[in-house]
Amino acid sequence: MTTESAAAAAGATVHGYPRQGGNRELKKAIEGYWKGRVSADALRVTAAGLRRTAWQQLAAAGLTEVPTGDFSYYDHVLDTTVMVGAIPARHRAAVTDDALAGYFAMARGTQDAPPLEMTKWFDTNYHHLVPELGPDTVFSADPAKQVAELGEALALGHTARPVLVGPVTYLLLAKPAPGVAADFEPLTLLDRLLPVYAEVLAALRAAGAEWVQLDEPALVQDRTPAELNVAARAYRDLGALTERPRLLVASYFDRLGEALPVLAKAPVEGLALDFTGPAARNLDDLAAVGGLPGKRLVAGVVDGRNIWVNDLQRSLATLGTLLGLADRVDVAASCSLLHVPLDAAAERDVDPQILRWLAFARQKTAEIATLAKGLGSGTAAVAGELSANRAALVSRAASPLTHDPAVRARTAAVTAADARRPQPYAERTAAQRAHLGLPLLPTTTIGSFPQTDELRAARADLRAGRIDTAGYEARIRGEIEEVVAFQEKAGLDVLVHGEPERNDMVQYFAEQLTGYLATRHGWVQSYGTRYVRPPVLAGDVSRPGPMTVRWTSYAQSLTARPVKGMLTGPVTMLAWSFVRDDQPLGDTARQVALALRDEVADLEAAGTAVIQVDEPALRETLPLRSADRAGYLAWATEAFRLTTSGVRPDTQIHTHMCYAEFGDVVGAIDDLDADVISLEAARSHMQVARELAAHGYPREAGPGVWDIHSPRVPAAAEAAGLLRRGLEAIPAERLWVNPDCGLKTRGWAETRASVENLVAAAREVRATLTGDHA
Q1: Alpha-carbon span 156 to 19, nearest angstrom
Q2: What is the pLDDT of residues 424-445, one digit of tens each?
Q3: Taking a C-beta distance cutoff of 8 angstroms, is the pair 73, 47 a contact?
Q4: How far apart are CA 685 and CA 12, in angstroms?
Q5: Which of 339, 497, 709, 773 is catalytic?
Q6: Which end of the chain is less congested by CB atoms within 10 angstroms, N or C?
Q7: Are 317 and 296 in contact (CB under 8 A)?
Q8: Annotation marks residue 656 as catalytic
Q9: pLDDT tens digit string along 389-399?
Q10: DSSP string covering 644-690
């Protein structure tokens, strides 16, 4: 095909689209179903309407092919588990009795059956459910969801492409099922899984699919020769099928590297590659392997993970180069648009000049269509769009919001000594134990307590003017009083104020720092029905005044027990924001760290003896390629230490991490030099405690004994059992007892019972260690 005809054939598509709807209709319908207020049929009607609206929006924007199968009630990896029949034994009866209720049981658990483990989807803030597999796993095809959703799109007249998690990535995401040897390799199940994928592909072809996309993002990570051979064999076998649609194998989030020649040679009809950020190196790598002659290339040149407008001229240059490397080039986002909000046009409170810089999902689809038009018809056909785009880029670069000389001078003056506590840990821990007087196995929670309907109503009343600031703050004080009283009665040793004033652990701080912008409708799915509004980090960061001191001090005035000051760490402030892309992340992290350092100093001066700086995103932001990790961890750990290193030795610094694979960052956890770290551990059965022990971690740790992402209440005996597992790895004098994460999403009834059981478990195990059974 000539370059001219290739350009004329350029299409526009995306890998996926936000699921929730413009007003989070899906969240409301699912939570209504859980509470018995919405029937299963009504939930399905809502879901079908949301899919229909999404496809219509994509088609109206100019996309020539829409994705199907990317919609999910909870998680697309869980959907794949259902599709291949890998239902855990403890959930099979529930799924058989009621497929929808059983589906949610796998995601959320029941009182008798814990849910699947949850972890981050690569280096994003989206959480997926981890498949559980073993040598006895028997797969079986269930393509009903994928076939039905394809049928819906085709009936509406759309050209549609089903999108599935690929078999290699699915197995690489899986873990050994409970009771299976820890060294079991799920990838050894490939020969059992491929026939199931063959059945699904045949069913989709019979339903009218011309193309099917198989997502293999796991192949952008470092892979062994054996793993690459498995990928080659998988796509050799799938490519050899006769009863199948054409196959598009997709990767994203980074460069494919050594996996690129494997997929380029595979007998599939197309590849979808990411050409943004670190994945821009795919361009040179693709040229080096000789391109994709005779194949389709879906070129991800619009960033699917961040919200800044695309540089259209630069993307057209990239696309022009790609035209010579494939038989057909289509334009796309780099990955699913699941990771960005739906529509920037809904943001009425953002300065119109700044709004020009932002592109949410609907704006990105317009950019994709513009690029496809420019690629197919020439730049003259999109001259107006290119001119407006250049003006927006120039406006952002020249804005005083992006450059504060005082902030830059302060960050430039930071020295290595500023990011190190001068006292060794042994000296600090002795001072802290004398100061705090805590028992063996001290108990605490992570920070937040339930955000009640009354709290949400109070915020709504304040925004609507139905109450004034004084009335709102009176409600906050009342909530703090209730939380502190409950914790004292329950017997916790280190208390928290419960964070009733905080809408979100990042947004709350972003709204009080310069350089950040808040959105009103910028919701993004984190997991299940949990949606967050990541703030936009647009410019240089500083702290105009104290952010947490007032409420922490009020809580401390109500009790003689220590109350933790609660802050969100600099890496998490970046990871859970839409971060600026016009300077290195390390520079931005240092700015945020200095702002937080001022807050730590003010908390200590106000008498706060325990300060927790949460960094749940430390692992999730870890680069996918090992060659890029040392540089990231250097600035990430420095930023944490810069935040926390100015305190006295008797001030105890805590940090917290959750729902990630910690084994890759145990060394970095050590480098944080926190006095105490609390970590998610309940669903993984104390795996992180063993990882800390294997590393020789020398400080105190609280691996969680209560999975707070499930509504079930763990019995005291269950928590005690996990605690004893923790003691097998961590000495009692260094072990804390706490939940996996904050309690914001839980209800008060389950929270009261679970906290009381946690304290009872700690007392029971403590008594066996001390002989004190009083």
Answers
A1: 18
A2: 999 999 999 999 999 999 999 9
A3: yes
A4: 45
A5: 709
A6: C
A7: no
A8: no
A9: 999 999 999 99
A10: HTTS-TTSEEEEEE-SS-GGGGHHHHHHH--SEEEE--TTTTTHHHH
